[in-house]
Design a protein that fits this description.
Structural class: alpha+beta
Low-confidence stretches: 1-11, 96-106, 132-140, 376-380
Order of helices and strands: EHEHHEHEEEEEHHEHEEHEEHHEE
Number of helices: 10
Distance between the termini: 44 Å
């Protein structure tokens, strides 16, 4: 065990021996490193010292497991988004231990290597407001870091206590997140059953009631052309409500299937093949039921289709079926044009397949984009579950999805959905 105290008149000049020791500690990780950061500003320090970059490089070269506990706030949001493809992250909430007037915020960071030894250190974060010529704890820029002391230990009791502390916090956070997810899932089912299905059944009941009223009124007479037309209209309304209710039930089943399958058995799937399958399904649906006589045209641009593979399963097609169906639904013209592009994309040394799907429909205002993938989106036509299924599936295959405008800053020219999947 050793403990070193840094004394440096220039707090921004981080002690070289400290950095060398920490980098060597990370380099020697065999399988897993656990990291606990009590303040989000600690993440800024790790980024400043290139420690985050080195952790990611070790992840890519040795495929080690990196688990991090760190508070999430506006200051850490950008960095956390950058690291989550490589680091298993859990947000924690810790109480603030300094007032806003304090010039220095002490932080203690803990690294646990393969649950065998630890490296910990505390830092001071000075934040300077150039305009006011004064220290300001609430600003996250103009930070000056200094390392107060650092400690390496293989002491069995110290390591055991550190590992136990980390594991307890990690497990409690996982259980809390699971409880929140279970509640959201339960609320979703209650909303769908009591709201959407109830609304569809009310439409069916009202329409059939009007049909019965007209038939009873004309028991002894031949129906007039006007009454016959009304009955046909009411029955059509009831039929459409029944179809939407059935579609909602199918979507609920899909979500339940996604939710219930905890152990994923993914296999090699070809992305262009899944897209073509989805196109055929939507085209057949339009052939069977197409009151507005719409025709769908898809232009697919990619390299060598046989090489564009990801790890997924049979539900992969559902992503593109939902996106293509949405385009048909929100395009007013009879010709529905969709552009699909697939290209390789790299994050560090990790290869992904980026897929973009662009349409020429009415577009999505920026105010609606943030809520678009919510499970119960009240502004969507129908049940609002289609894009929730899309997001759930993309994340199921360890991918990411986003939405933007086909024409930059002009949402009225159509929408582009983008996705990345790890290449297989």
């Amino acid at each position: 065990m050793y403990n070193t105290k840094e004394s440096n008149n220039n707090p921004q000049a981080i002690d070289k021996k400290f950095l060398d020791t920490l980098f060597e500690f990370i380099h020697s990780v065999q399988s897993e490193i656990d990291i606990m950061l009590p303040e989000s500003a600690s993440l800024q320090f790790l980024s400043y010292c290139k420690i985050i970059d080195y952790l990611i490089s070790q992840k890519l070269s040795k495929n080690i497991i990196i688990k991090m506990l760190c508070p999430f706030d506006e200051n850490s949001k950008k960095l956390i988004k950058q690291i989550v493809p490589f680091i298993v992250y859990q947000s924690i909430k810790l109480s603030s231990h300094k007032t806003a007037a304090a010039a220095t915020v002490p932080n203690s960071l803990l690294f646990i290597r393969d649950k065998q030894d630890i490296f910990s250190f505390s830092i001071d974060i000075h934040q300077y407001d150039k305009e006011n010529k004064d220290y300001n704890e609430n600003r996250n820029k103009n930070s000056i870091f200094s390392v107060n002391d650092w400690l390496y230990s293989k002491n069995v009791a110290v390591v055991k206590n550190s590992v136990s502390c980390f594991d307890i916090v990690w497990e409690e956070k996982e259980n809390y997140d699971k409880m929140i997810e279970e509640k959201k899932h339960s609320d979703l089912l209650v909303d769908l059953i009591t709201h959407d299905i109830g609304n569809y059944h009310q439409v069916i009941q009202t329409s059939l009631g009007l049909v019965i009223f007209l038939l009873e009124k004309n028991k002894t007479n031949i129906l007039s052309p006007q009454d016959s037309e009304k009955i046909f209209s009411y029955l059509t309304t009831a039929k459409n409500a029944l179809m939407r209710s059935r579609s909602l039930v199918d979507n609920i089943r899909r979500l339940e299937r996604l939710y219930g399958q905890k152990d994923l058995k993914l296999v090699l799937r070809n992305l262009p093949e899944a897209i073509n399958n989805a196109y055929s399904t939507v085209e057949q649906t339009l052939y069977d039921n197409n009151p507005h006589n719409k025709k769908i045209f898809i232009n697919i641009a990619h390299g060598h289709p046989t090489d564009i593979n990801i790890m997924a399963e049979d539900l992969l097609d559902e992503i593109f079926i939902n996106l293509f169906s949405n385009t048909v639904k929100y395009t007013d013209s009879s010709e529905v044009k969709i552009d699909v592009m697939i290209k390789d994309y790299f994050i560090g040394e990790a290869k992904y397949w980026m897929t973009t799907i662009s349409d020429y429909g009415k577009g999505i205002p920026d105010s609606m984009k943030k809520e678009l993938f919510e499970r119960f989106y009240y502004k969507a036509k129908g049940s609002g579950l289609g894009l929730s299924i899309v997001r759930a599936l993309v994340e199921r295959y360890r991918g990411k999805i986003w939405v933007g405008d086909r024409v930059y800053k002009d949402y009225t020219k159509g929408t582009t959905f983008g996705m990345i999947f790890p290449a297989a």
